Amino acid sequence: MRNETSRLGNIILNHQTELLEGWVSTLVARTGRREANAETELRQQASRFLSLVGQAVTTAGTDNIDSNAWQEARQLLSDISATRVRKGHSSIETANFVFSLKEPLNGYLQAELSDDPAALVSEITATNALFDMLGLFTVETYQKLREQVIMRQQQELLELSTPVVQLWKDVLALPLIGTLDSARTQVVMESLLQKIVDTGALIAIIDITGVPTVDTLVAQHLLKTVAAARLMGADCIISGIRPQIAQTIVHLGVNLEDVITKATLADAFQVALKRTGATISQKDE
């Protein structure tokens, strides 16, 4: 295998310029991205990859891309995948960066080993297997990074969808819109508790006007949030209790007796002001 793989390594290192030009042209044609900056970056990545693969093949062969000899090549593919995830490239485009190199390499192998069919078949088989492994590594890395991006975006959306605002001195409001599940409850609780710590608020109004339905699980999530806020020294008022929600809570047997509830945020705000000793007066015209 070493004699065969040394041929591949020699081809890559001895024909790097010609391989690079053909490879980059193929990549640009397939992706349709002809921006000058994009092509320059692509050329730099391709040139570096060719060099690293040539060295790794010559040193360690093609059997195990997890070996130390392939570390730099793997790292480069990881960096390329990360860049392409950020720029919105597809997984197919990312994988083609590796897979499209097989065809020109096989062409050079055919030219060099045309008089030795057995060696040619063996070398092409080993080359295809190598770049299949490298391509799969690239796809797996891309998918993991993409999942991380999606999870981070979901977390950011959760945080944006649960803003805690200060309505008055010592009074906070947390308007909830949409379904309240376990993951979002955790974000809600963390956001509210942190705001209580930052402001020293005494009252927190949790407004569920925008929550479409309240079931047992949602009610339990609300009670947990109320309990956590109380441990931090702030009482909670739940506003936005519509008739159908009130009937549902009663039907479910959820105990909200020790929690102040109001129909509207305005009503809850008035209660909060009274409890903090503040008053608002309307100036007569």
UniProtKB/TrEMBL annotation:
Keywords: Phosphoprotein
A Pfam family the protein falls into: STAS
InterPro entries in UniProt: Bact_StressResp_Reg, RsbRD_N_dom, STAS_dom, STAS_dom_sf
CDD domains: STAS_RsbR_RsbS_like
UniProt keyword annotation of ATP-binding present: no
UniProt xrefs under Gene3D superfamilies: STAS domain
Start and end residues of each STAS domain: 161-272
Protein name: RsbT co-antagonist protein RsbR
Organism annotation: Noviherbaspirillum suwonense
